[in-house]
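Fold this complex.
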Amino acid sequence: MGNEDRRCAADRRSFLNRLTLGLGALVGAAMSIPPLAYVLSPLVGRPPRKWRDVGMLEQFPIGETRLVQFQDSTSTAWAGATAKTGAWLRRTGEDEFIAFSVNCRHLGCPVRWVNDAKLFMCPCHGGVYYEDGEVAAGPPPEALARYPVRVVDGKIEIETSPIPLTTSDFA
Amino acid sequence: MNFVKRILVWLDDRSGFSDVVLPMLRHVVPDDARWWYVFGSATLCAFAVQLISGIALATTYVPGGDAAYESLLYITNEAPLGNLLRGMHYYGATAMVVLAIIHMTQVFLHAAYKYPRELNWMSGVVLLFVVLGMSFTGQLLRWDANGVWSVTVAAEMAGRAPLVGPAIAHGILGGETVGGSTLTRFFAIHVFVLPGLILAGVGLHLWLVLRHGISEMPKVDEPVDPQTYKEEYEARLAKTGVPFWPIAAWRDAVFSVAVMALIVGCAIIFGPPALGTSPNPSDINANPMPDWYFWWYFAILSMLPPELETYVILGLPVVGLLGLIVIPMLSNQGARAPSRRPWAVGTVVFSFTALVVLTIYGYRKPWSPDFGVKPLPKEIIASDDPGIMHGAALVHQKGCLYCHEIDGYGGHRGPELSDIGQRLTQADLIIRINNGGYNMPSFAASLNAQELADMVAFLQTRRFSPSPESRLETDQATPSSP
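Structure:
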């Protein structure tokens, strides 16, 4: 084999090398990108918020704070009990309500309302909130999140919301 | 040659078993590689338990938000051997975590990560973190209230990451809230992704063991010199080495049998972890707790100053992973004997002490309010005064006892109040209750003047009162006046 033939063979091998690697990358991308996009799809687009009926006006005496349960907006057919969510609902006036998220702003654990002490308390790391949701003690960096509430024809409705995430200061 | 033998010979010839696998099994290992070296194979044995019991459980477990809990109830209470299998899967996971840590500690103490086995160590570190990932995702598949709230906590922690935090959090949840897509995600990760990574990692790890050989027991007069190590190692093996199969392997087999006996024994005697209440995110009576191997981390997060919390949540796993991976890069030659590496021994002692103390703390969780505390009984109140009795009732009603202990009743988040009457004056008590203090809320809005007066009156009665025995001892020890 002459020098020219050897050079041609080397060029051919180099070309085939790149061709095979390129086609392999193409096949890899074709099989990976759709599944990856599928897995990441929950990050794109937000489900529409929905107003959920949580009870009649007369069920909530003024000044009392009660736990209400309702379906969230992203529920799938197989979600079962996990489609439920809760809020601490307080009637503050004739037609006025405040709905606090049950998620502690520290790490999301479920806060409890201690009526005699007028405090929300978290069992996980001891976060405490005052009646208005402001932080009273412990590690929570922010006040309890609130859900939008409205009264329609004597029915109280809460608008579904995402789990409140406490993002970092440098986010 | 009978028919069966001919088939076996044919299979051996075509598969190359005798040519490829047997030399691997009979590779020469140091003759002093004895009981110290059984932890790696035992970890692999525990992983095999997880694979086999996991496949069996997956034939019945339904990874749907609406049916997972019920299918677990069925597996636990009705399915033949279901309770045993769940127990084996749980204690197999525990064994895997414990054995991986012991194996890693032994490798670290013997400096077996030094030249030429740096990559063995690094692949092992990655495997340890994947195993911890398996444990965490497995806990979530126990789709009870604890599982649901653990996912929420994981999403909240991820949400603290800069810029991409919310995206990661929603990726974990499979949406903006816990729902049907959450469990299926964790199921896929637990059953396909992480076991796949472990199998690949174990393959690499074992290949590296074959490539570089099993390290010898460290000796003071045999420091690692990359220039000469391989020749010296080969020379020593040629002189004193023994075939792994069966001279060394029998110890692995014996220890793996002991591990299996422990896993099955625990599964039979203690059973699987009890399922909590159903996975209802609106059930606020849940008290989320990770499985025991994460209690130390749970404790750290609970005791940190809030301003450091985000850095630790995000930084500790990354620093832990990178810190362990770079160990061979910091020192891949020199002494291997623990007696010549006091810092290494000190690091292990400190790490294990911290791990044990934090784990105990995580179990006791003194930072958590005690919502189940009972009202103070009469013998503790020790007064018939109506105001004082009312004050004693109020410290329970107003939640003081959730965080403060009085004579054995109450939580431990705040200071004990058993002798608060000696430490604070009436005025101090009023100011503290009204205004609150460090980590204590103000009660000014939830106590009227009479309630405050009664509560303070009760707290002023809380004074140190020695038991009759100790009083007698004190009297005897005090010299009488001349």
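The beta strands of chain B are 28-29, 242-243.
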